[in-house]
Amino acid sequence: MFESKQDKTRQGMLSVSIKDLGVLDAAYMPFVENGGLFIPTPRNYELDDEVSILLALMDEPTRLPVAGRVVWITPAGAQNQRTQGIGVQFSDKNSPVRKRIEELLAALGTRERRSHTL
Question: Looking at the domain assignment, is residue 112 inside a domain?
């Protein structure tokens, strides 16, 4: 399950909840410097927009704050029925969020990935 909603109280803040390893695997962008996540959203963004995310992973009780910038845009009506959304590059080179995502995904082992982006 992947939930994304904009927090109306803080402009640019996205609340994202990923509760499934397959969904996390499809959303994670390891090919982006510092790592990143694809976030489905109907909202329009531009490349280099700064974004703040509160990320809930699996059943972990703590939401992780993540700062980043938009490096990928999939527009509405994209070919191959791709999901509309943005790819957000993590700002922190040594992001604990990136480390946690990679720890969780290690359980999947090596296999062909199905991605929202590439």
Answer: no
